[in-house]
Every structure is written in C-alpha cells, then in structure tokens.
Amino acid sequence: MDATALWQRYQKWLYFHEGLGFFLDVSRMRFDDAFVEKLQPKFEKAFADMAELEKGAIANPDENRMVGHYWLRNPDLAPTPELTQEIVSTIEQIDVFAEKVHTGAIHPPKAPRFTDIISIGIGGSALGPQFVAEALASDFPPLAIHFIDNSDPTGIDRVLTQVRNRLTSTLVLVISKSGGTPEPRNGMAEVKKVYAGHNLDFANYAIAITMPGSKLDEQAKSEGWLARFPMFDWVGGRTSELSAVGLLPGALQGIDIRAMLEGAKEMDDATRIQDLKNNPAALLALSWYYAGNGKGEKDMVVLPYKDSLFLFSRYLQQLVMESLGKEKDLNGNIVHQGIAVYGNKGSTDQHAYVQQLREGVPNFFATLIEVLEDRQNPSPEIEPGITSGDYLSGFLQGTREALYEKHRDSVTVTIPQVNSRTVGALIALYERAVGLYASLININAYHQPGVEAGKKAAAEILELQKKVVAVLQEEKTPLTLEQISQKVSATDKIESIYMILRHLHANSRGVVLEGNIGQPNSLKFCIGG
C-alpha cells in the first residue's frame, strides 16, 4: 500500500476519545472491509452478551456467579440497591481509612505514623496493584509498598529485609478471596512469625481484604485485626484492580483512586457503543481476531514506550491469557483457545527482540503504547532541536514502520500522559476487549479450570510428601525409591517422590541419602538424627 493510501487508511480507522485524550490506531492491521463485514453478526452478539452481563446475568455458569467488575466504577449499574450500596460504602471506607492512616489518626503502637506496606497476594491480587504502584505512585509516597506475591522463601526474606528497620511502622495487607489460597496464606504465616519474633502484635498491623465470612475474614475478626475490607464473589481476581484489592493499596500510596474509577467509567461508556468503528474495545477485539484467525495463532507483544508502564504486559498476561486460554468452548467442543502475551517496554526491547520481530518468525502482532507527554517539566535538548523524548517517539514510530514494511501487524494505543484517569481507562479498555473477544470465539472468559487443576495437583504433591516422610520416620533402615513408593501406595508417583526427597535433602530437612543423587535408582533414603 502506497503512502497516500496508508494515510487514508489511518484516518479511516483512527479512534479518538476527546474526554480522555485517548487514541487507538488499528490501521496497521491488514484486515479489509469484507473481513469486517463478515464479523458483523458476531459483534452484534458480543455487544448483546456484554449488555446481559452488565445487567447481572450469570456469566460464569461453572460457579453460578455474576460478573460485575463494571459496577465497581458505576455502582448505579449494579442489579440491586444492596449491591450498589455495598460498592459505594466500600469506596467510602477506603477513603476514610487511608486519610486516617495518612494523618496518623490510625497509627502503630510504637510509631506516630505507618511508613510502609507489605502487600501479600497472588495473581490478580498482586499484578494489578503492582502495575498501578509502578505507574502512579510518587517517588516519595506517604507509604512505600512492598509485595510478597509468591511462595519463594528467598523472595519473602528479601521483602522483610527491606523493611527490617521499619517493621514497627509497616502495615500488612493480606489479600485472598477465600483465605485458603496457599501462596498468600504462606506469606501471611511467615510475616506473622516475624512480627511475633519482634514482640509485635500482628493484629495491630494487619488488614484483611477478603470475602465476608471467609476463613481469612473469620481469622481477622477473631484476632482483632486493624481493619477488614470486602471482596465480592462477582469480581474475578484478574478484574479486581478497581475493587478494594487495588483501591486500598492505591489510596494508601496517595494515588487518586477516584480518578482511576472515573477514567474506567469513561472508557466503559465508550466501549458500550454498539458500533464497531466507534468502540475502541471492539476495534481491539477485531484486531486480535484478525491477527490470530480467531484461533490465537499469533502472540500479542506489548511494548509500552514509558518506563512507568513496563509492568503493563505482566498485568495483561493474566487478564488475557487466563480469560481466553480455554480448552473448550461454550458448547463443550475442544477448541484450545487463547492469545499468548509477552513484552516489556520500548525502546529497551528494540535492542532485545525487535530483530526477531522484524525478520524472524512472523508469529505475533505488536501493541505499541505511546504516551504523548515526555515529562512534566521542559526537556533539555540532547542535540539541536531534539530531546530524549523526541528520540523515544522516533523509536516508536520507527519500530511501527519497520514492522509494517515486513508485513508484521501492529496496534498503537496513545494516551496523553500516565495518570490515574488514563490508567483506569487502560484497565477498563482491555477488560472489555477480552469480554468482547471471548464472545466472538464462544468461550467463557470468567472461569479458570486450568488454574484450579494446578492447585489440586500441588495439594496432592504435599499430601504425598507427608506420607513419604511418615514412612521414613517409621523405618529403621534406608529405603530405595521403589520401596518407598510401594509403602505409600504410589508406584505411579516415583518421580515425584524423588523430587520431594531431593528438595528435603537440599534444605537439610532431616532426609539422608546414600548413593549418587544424579542417578535416582542408586539412591537409598532415611531420616537422620
């Protein structure tokens, strides 16, 4: 396509939202009018599906749940007055609590102010708050936040070391819908022991964000924790950033959560328009469908050209991949759907993998995130008439052009600056795009059976570990792996037994081995001491 035709295509497909100062350019996706026309019936159904979802339809039949994260930023849309009031009162409670923490009206027993936050969560209870903290928290926030988002002992130690001199002024947020998810439960248990080791009553520092009546909620209530905030069963983890999960840590860091909600609301309004060319989320869904032939045949490479947005690709990984990565469609057919997401930031990654993107395997489409404002203050010139921000803009445009020349498609999202409104809008945009795309390909975007299967398998391994250790404790002589597997009635799990014992031995957990650890059949195990 020559330059004139490409310019005409750019103008034809450019979306602009005046209120948000938001642009979306899908002109470098090579769909034609016939393709758009062919998808029109699917989009009409997708728009209808989304409207039903927002009215309170059971959109997650596996768990008999509504899906209502849209109500979080527009409570009047909630299907009952009671839900509306719950949402409104929760936001008010967050505002009041954060203000009291900032003024010192709520303070720790041994310090005049809280200075830090340890946020303990996993998946959506960590990725959203991490992304928002990196994007929006000031360089010197009223409370600095630290995340424990894994069951990695070294990672937990690192966070606790960072706050070791401020433990007496560090809040702990424990974020878990049920209270039974292993990773946040493990993090809480370790942190609680550290507080006890410093003669600090954990309850004076702890806040629960959980479902009312959950195991965690009951624990927080019985132990007299500092505060409890609700999670709702109609909000999934990957769409929970604009619930208490993300709003409380954001407010404590001094982030304008009301502006985040307003930005999301404005984007929601824009993405309800049942006209493909005037709906940015529909344009994204169209682009995804075209790129991957409606089957996720190409990966989504996300390149934000702003350091503060570098965690956006991690956030989108969960939102997109957990929502769309499904074995079966709504009719029970095996479809193996999904879109793989990876990326980091531009222009750093132009030096890392744009070489392959331009000239290697054409198994992707790119999403470039542009921020128009370079910095809040004037930029110095690096060379006559040119600033570092000009270079960054040039790198983005250059990458977009270089990819297109080699028939590699891209989408460009442009925001005026990184602020609470625009970040809220980005979150809402991609939430809606995922919902529309899921309808196009006829899958349930709101359950995660694969995640649950992984949790179940992990629980089985830990149960097997208990049986293996019990057998070794009872035996007086060393046993081979085969003997151990027979005694625990798990001959089909001999590899897992080897890995369990290798791990216990490496961590000096009482397991003694004889033989060559690299040759499993040569080994015998016993409990030492």
SS class: alpha/beta
pLDDT < 50 stretches: none
Return the average pLDDT rounded to an integer.
94
Overall helicity: 40-55%
Rg, rounded, reads 26 Å
Number of helices: 17
Distance between the termini: 77 Å
Largest sheet features? 6 strands, mixed
- The largest beta-sheet arranges its strands as 1-2-15-12-10-11
Shape: globular
Short summary:
The chain is 47% helix and 14% strand.
Question: How would you describe this protein?
Answer:
The protein is an alpha/beta fold and 529 residues long. The protein is built from 17 helices and 18 strands. It has helices spanning 3-13, 33-55, 81-103, 124-136, 153-162, 182-197, 215-223, 244-252, 257-271, 280-291, 312-324, 354-359, 388-405, 420-441, 449-474, 481-487, 494-506, and strands spanning 15-17, 22-25, 58-60, 65-66, 116-120, 144-148, 170-175, 206-210, 227-230, 299-304, 341-343, 364-371, 381-383, 386-387, 410-415, 479-480, 511-514, 524-527. The strands form five sheets. It has a six-stranded mixed sheet with strand order 1-2-15-12-10-11, with helices on both faces. A hairpin with a 2-residue loop joins β13 (381-383) and β14. Its main location: cytoplasm. This is Glucose-6-phosphate isomerase.
What order do the helices and strands come in, and which of them pair?
Blueprint: H1 3-13, E1 15-17, E2 22-25, H2 33-55, E3 58-60, E4 65-66, H3 81-103, E5 116-120, H4 124-136, E6 144-148, H5 153-162, E7 170-175, H6 182-197, E8 206-210, H7 215-223, E9 227-230, H8 244-252, H9 257-271, H10 280-291, E10 299-304, H11 312-324, E11 341-343, H12 354-359, E12 364-371, E13 381-383, E14 386-387, H13 388-405, E15 410-415, H14 420-441, H15 449-474, E16 479-480, H16 481-487, H17 494-506, E17 511-514, E18 524-527
